[in-house]
Amino acid sequence: MTISDFPETKDDDSVLKPTETVTQDVVFGEITEDGPNYRNVSFPGTIILMMKTQIGLGVLSIPMAFDYLGIVPGVICLCAIAVVTTWSDYVIGTFKLNHREVYGIDDAAALIFGPIGRWALSVIFCLYWVFVSGSGILGISIGLNALSTHGTCTAVFSMAAAILGFCFSSVRTLGRVTWLAWIGLPCILVAVMIVTIAVALRDRPAAAPMTEGPWVSDVKMFGNPSFTEGVTAVCNLVFAFSGTPGFFAIISEMRNPRQYTPAMLVCQGGVTTIYSVVGCVVYYYCGSYVSSPALGSAGGTIKQIAYGFALPGLIVTTTIVTHVRPHMQIPAKYIFVHLLRGSRHLNSNSLVHWGCWLGCTFGVTVVAYIIASSIPIFDSLVSLIGSLLGTILCFQPYGCMWLYDNWGKAKGSSRSWLIMVGFSIVVIVVGLS
Hints:
The structure is a single chain. This protein is mainly α. The chain has helices spanning about 45-55, 60-70, 70-100, 105-115, 115-145, 155-170, 175-200, 225-240, 245-250, 260-285, 300-325, 330-340, 350-375, 380-395, 395-405, 415-430; strands at about 25, 30. The longest helix has about 35 residues, at about 115-145. It comes from Penicillium egyptiacum. It is found in: Membrane.
């Protein structure tokens, strides 16, 4: 049986039976039992991969962002970014179904802007995920420092984090990495919940001065940030939803890509709720003495316990963002697919296949390690990623993609079409700011 693209298409929209095997994919070419199956991510697996792509390092910086902005503006900005990124995620699904040869955001840019667009988005895309991998390595090294009470220098822990990320991210397919996400997501959520509950039960946050009498949080409903603080806070919130470009790779490896939208909505709804609750509770009880990463806000013992749970989640995050953000092997998987696309080595277990794949993951890991060592302050690295590259990859391309697919579909310039054109242009402009 040979299928040019998605195996799920039938008259009744049902999924093909397990005995029916995809042998041909527009992106991955011929898929055989002798090679890796790049189309093996289930609906639950899609949700967990999406949530692990979003929930990771970003959640640890949200309370600090609320400290800069205040709770009310902070929640409003968080929800606004959630709405825009959810729309961007939706556009990814529709664009992929309309253009099945697209694997990554650079393929979309090539359709819209030509070779120059592909080159520009390729560079930005790879830089972004390498920087995110670097923040993952930095987060793991901070956790190892906390658990060992600074038993050795940070450089050693960063090297250990890089080695762990390389080993796990060298798994080739999303389907096989899904089980890591099932471990990593609960671990990071448990760690965050431990800190959230602990700060509510303590008489004061760990960084607050010891004074006589009860300590009162200096929480602000409305902040008065400087320009730099305001930009830093918004960039941190953008970073928290920065899994958006990684959704291209996830839908490309789904068994039934038509289930992408419901999976994405479940993911975004859950992620936004978790971010809002954690950000508000931790900041409410810690005020200006909140730590970044937030896991350090409840004191030494709780910090060690939280990082004990969080480390598997941080390792999985680094795995996913090094891989495609698994598929997140994003930079590595992206480079790998584009190097071998159209070659028999892409779907074989040949020496060229393995050499190219391990070379990609190793190269990304080395560069990420250098970044983590050069910018050892978590909040500064997260803000830098969000400000330089976050909006470019989470906002602007999707406005262009919607206009590309729908510009010629105006039915007498209907009101709904005009509204969506206006919204797409606004998203593009906001991404420039």
